[in-house]
Write a structure and sequence with these properties.
Layout lengths: L1 E3 L4 H10 L3 E3 L11 E3 L1 H20 L4 E3 L9 H5 L2 H4 L1 E6 L6 E3 L19 E4 L3 E3 L9 E3 L6 H5 L1 H7 L6 E10 L14 E11 L4 H18 L7 E5 L11 E9 L2 E12 L1 H10 L5 E3 L4 E3 L2 E8 L1 H11 E5 L5 E5 L10 E5 L5 H14 L5 E3 L5 H11 L3 E5 L1 H6 L1 E6 L5 E5 L3 H10 L8
Parallel strand pairs: 4-10, 20-21, 20-22
Antiparallel strand pairs: 1-18, 2-3, 5-6, 5-7, 8-9, 10-11, 11-17, 12-13, 13-14, 14-17, 15-16, 18-19, 22-23, 23-24
Bound molecules: adenosine-5'-triphosphate.
């Protein structure tokens, strides 16, 4: 068997469209600049990534609790956080074709028309502004949040007191964020609307450096646990002049996308910047009383922050493979971690015209369907049906054949090894649930 596992963006984008993972937004109107909608499989994949993150970052850890803050908030938040002043990109315009670019991504010539005549750079704030209420004046300006974490800082005391948390502890949040990016692109990699998964981990100041290193390791291990080969990941120490205004230290986890080595996740040591700023501006206390030392202190914050879309793309890139067996048969397979796979099982009656097989296959579907996404497919030869499932990463295909009607067993075919085993129908659900919980590693590449 030969395996080809490096995939082009064109191949992935077309697979995503054809199989209902990602569609271009507003497509019938010609699209809407780098905005995407997630189809039947995309919404499952996204939810699975969020669930895996939430389970590992919140449920599995006694030291972390969750929050779901609002997208809109008092404009003071963004003034005080420094975003109104600093959340900017340096923008230049080509005088010849009038396209705009981020200054730091530009060489000497315009990537569009080749001219080398640019305007001076100007700072462009990438927060989306809107107006709250019917009057569009300065007093009613509000911003769509460009990061989710500010709501965590504002609720720091509320959460700490309500959930009786003691340092070190974390507050996690998943939600939409918006940035008016000058140059969105590379499919879902850089968009203006995206989802973030952020953990704000509050620690005693003298332990921040150590916690920072621990979180970098944790987060790298998380990607490997869900099937990303370590050689596709790299850590990048962000130099002083590239760091966000609030950060004392940042390490990016980069991933080898088909378009290059790019940021997947950022881990920042935000020090006490945010809590101190908000406490000073609001006049409200945002500190922590330490029982042991009987002192008030302002915790420092270590923040692993990642979108949902960049890991989604990374998981697809890592999972995609084209295989050719000894007889020259080709298959495309997405070797996704079973917990991430959008569909867990597919159920096939071997032949469509056999009412007995169809009835048993539908009975199995009725058992599995409410527990996890399951597909029922009775069309085409069974080999074709397997390939359809391989291409979307379904880990298990269940085929109902004549023997099933005699002994209530079915074949369960496993995606990676393509081996088939007979299993009793009545044990399918617990068996697949057990397999879903097992650790998984991608087959050797
Ligand atoms: P970049 O340098 O690529 O613009 P950033 O350093 O500004 O990213 P952060 O502010 O650290 O990004 O945001 C944390 C995470 O949020 C990023 O690692 C990424 O996963 C995600 N993210 C940020 N901006 C976008 C975007 N425009 N589209 C998709 N995901 C994004």
């Amino acid at each position: 068997m030969s395996t080809q596992s490096s995939v082009s963006m064109d191949t992935l984008v077309s697979l995503c469209k054809r199989r209902g993972i990602v569609f271009p937004n507003s497509e019938i109107y010609g699209g809407f600049g780098s905005t995407w909608d997630y189809g039947p499989l995309g919404v499952e994949l996204k939810n699975n990534i969020k669930r895996a993150w939430w389970r590992d970052m919140v449920w599995a850890r006694p030291d972390v609790v969750g929050l779901d803050g609002a997208i809109l908030s008092a404009p003071d938040v963004w003034q005080v956080s420094g975003h109104v002043e600093h959340f900017t990109d340096a923008l230049v315009e080509c005088r010849s074709c009038h396209r705009r670019f981020k200054a730091d991504e530009l060489g000497t010539n315009c990537p569009h028309c080749g001219a080398s005549d640019f305007t001076d750079t100007r700072q462009f704030n990438t927060m989306f502004k809107t107006f709250v209420g019917p009057v569009e004046d300065d007093a009613s300006v509000a911003y769509l949040r460009p990061e989710t974490c500010q709501m965590i800082y504002l609720n720091f005391r509320n959460v700490q007191l309500a959930a009786r948390m003691k340092l070190p502890f974390g507050i996690a949040q998943i939600g939409k964020a918006f940035r008016n990016e000058i140059t969105p692109g590379n499919f879902i990699f850089r968009t203006r609307e995206f989802e973030q998964m952020e953990l704000e981990y509050f620690v005693k100041p003298d332990t921040a450096a150590e916690w920072f290193d621990r979180w970098v390791e944790e987060r790298l291990a998380w990607y490997v646990r869900y099937g990303i080969p370590p050689d596709l990941l790299e850590r990048y120490e962000v130099p002083d002049d590239e760091r966000a205004h609030y950060s004392l230290r940042t390490v990016d986890i980069k991933f080898r996308y088909p378009f290059g080595l790019e940021e997947l996740e950022g881990i920042a040591n935000r020090g006490d910047y945010d809590l101190r700023q908000h406490a000073a501006a609001s006049g409200k206390e945002l500190d922590y009383f330490d029982d042991q030392s009987q002192e008030h202190l302002i915790p420092h914050i270590v923040e692993p922050s990642v979108g949902v879309e960049r890991p989604l793309l990374a998981f697809l890139v890592a999972a995609y493979a084209e295989e050719v067996d000894a007889r020259g048969n080709k298959r495309v397979v997405l070797r996704l971690h079973p917990q991430l796979a959008p569909v867990k099982a597919a159920v096939f009656p071997l032949v469509r015209r056999d009412a007995g097989l169809v009835a048993l296959a539908q009975e199995i579907y009725a058992t599995l369907g409410p527990e996890f996404p399951t597909i029922y497919d009775e069309s085409a030869a069974v080999g074709r049906r397997y390939r359809r499932q391989d291409e979307i990463g379904t880990p298990w295909c269940i085929t109902v054949d004549r023997q099933s009607l005699e002994d209530r067993t079915v074949t369960v075919r496993e995606r990676d090894s393509m081996t088939q085993e007979r299993q009793p129908v009545d044990e399918l659900l617990p068996e697949l649930q057990r397999r879903l919980r097992e650790p998984w590693a991608p087959p050797e590449r």
